[in-house]
Amino acid sequence: MTAGSTGEYTPLEALNPNAEDHGDEAGEEQSHGKRTKVWQRVDATSFLAILLGFPVLLLAVTLLALFWHESVEAINRAEPNIYWARVVHAGWATRLVTVCTASIRAVMAFQAGLVTALVAGIALETTGAPLLHAPLYSMLRAVKAAPSNFWTATDFRPHLPRLLYVLVLIEVLVTAASQFLSTIFLSDFVDGTFTQRSNSTNVNILNATYGAADAWWSMPPAASWTFAELPGSFEDQPNFQDTGHTFRAFLPFEEEMQRTRLHRSVVQCRSWIIEYYVHLSGQIPTENLRYPLSIDQVSQPYINFTCILPVPAYWDNNTVGETSLCVPHTLSNWTVLNEDPLIQPAGFVEASNIFMVLDVLSTSAIIDTLGHTPAVQTIRTDGPWTIVSNGSAYIETLRISACLSNLAMQTLTVGMNSTTDNFEPTTAWDHVTQSYNTELSRLQLGVLSSENMSPVNKRGTLTLDPRSEWETFNPPADTLGIDPTTFFLVVIVSLPTLFISNLNFSYDPSVILSRRTTGFILGNSHPTHVDLFQDTLITTASPALAVQALLTRIYQMAYYKKLAQLNSPVAAVTAFSSTATIPAQWTGFVLGLMLIVIHSTIVVVVIGWFVRLTEISFIGSYWQTVAHVVSEETRPILEEAGRTDDRAVRVWAKREAVVESLRCRWILRRSFSGRVTLGPVNDGR
């Protein structure tokens, strides 16, 4: 280009006008005068790998750490974050890990290449490299290859300083392990169950008693519905048993999945109490009781009862499983209340009821009474039981226990929660025992053993909040009022022998709980109820728990049949469980984080050394790479290498005059002309 052209041309020689006149001194002055800043000695890719790489790593690790934390907390039943829930429900849990680890691997790959270039520059400007390796080191500053090239391209003899050798070796291992980073993180994933965020759900409430009375005793329950419970403290005294104030709330959901996966809720529920009194002698006294009862009104000192007994179609010595449950008439002559009832009956005297449990001990003694009316005598007491004879001899014929229950109900706003998914066990027929297997149902009801009853959270049920947190529920104006007699109709009015009491008979409403066909077929309960009652009575020896379990099932049958017919929705706050593949531990995350931290530390250390120890190496400069290799010392090798490969060059170099040069390290240095080229270290420099 001529002087008159529009462009501007500066000869390369002009950059060093005094090189020939002032020799080495001029070269040194030129070099120091043109020293560039560190950030100017790296190309754009390297600069971005430093400037943006660390923020990207920090962002990816932060996102994964937050996701891990929310996942572990959610599995431990904490309230999940809304953004975490959106990611999980959208199926992006594993995709989030894939995206983040892909970003991390990309950054680590760029930075590992930068580490390779920086280490090559440090080596060439400090300790140098063997002559045959020097061109490789020079080129690595431009191409920024993987750090493993220090080994693979040098016959696994990189000739690096010891500390650099260790750092580069660690970086090689970390870079290789980072290829499995996604797998490492995903190793923490399992199919975990967590509680969803609370939402408003419409539920129905009981608003009428129509249809409550039905043949509940003669039909099997459709399910073992889960429920919420605030258990009382079971008390077993010499003369009575008390389950305590046991409150149970039924869940207003028709679908089994909703009931079993409900973890938190504030709903309208019905609760009830069962307490028991013993010390019977044919009549139930209402005064001077060993167990305290609240006597609201007494018209006579005794409560009389007449209960139907089981009458098997055939007789043998097996008396296990022959029981009668009856209710003395309570329509006009007395009112007995529990201590601290859930609600006062407010004139509804049938809210509190006495259930008489009569268990047969001797069928032969009963046979002896057929055809005449003996005088029943009390022989002894046995815990909650009174043992009586048939009057003709001191033969233990029956054991009798009186159980007090408050059947009135109240609709309340309560909270309930569960730390695990609940379950609704099935009652299957056992062909070996020729009866229904009620073990799982009894576990759910907490009546496997009176000595060691399972906690609520081990039985697949929810836990009611403390009674102090309950609130009175006011139904919407457009719904019918809540009738407290619903459960009275379910239990008492539905007793199969109620019609007998309405005839000119003196029997009280009863149900027969017999495992054998009875002579009074219409009075026998369905075998599922019989087996639940009898199994509980046999395993716990507690009539209190047996009646409690039986009444719970009868209540549930009526409640859930009625629930399907209701259309009186009110709002309830619910949180159901869900299952998804999410992190459940921190092991894989910590291992992946360690790889990232080690890599970042090596990058920072190598950058620091490059800034402090180098002056003339440019990262990503191809022309400088070529220029540093070309010198008077390397010209013979370059001329030979143009016609053959590296192996032949090594053979030629060992055979020719450059053998001595192969024994020393070559380092970047300035010549008298100002050029920077590779030269041997031991030439007096």
Automatic annotation (TrEMBL):
It comes from the Eukaryota. The chain crosses the membrane at residues 47-68, 163-186, 487-507, 588-611. It comes from Talaromyces atroroseus. The keyword Transmembrane applies. Residues 1-35 are annotated as: Disordered. Keywords: Membrane, Transmembrane, Transmembrane helix. This is Transmembrane protein. The keyword tRNA processing does not apply. Residues 19-32 have a biased composition (Basic and acidic residues). The lineage of its organism: Eukaryota, Fungi, Dikarya, Ascomycota, Pezizomycotina.
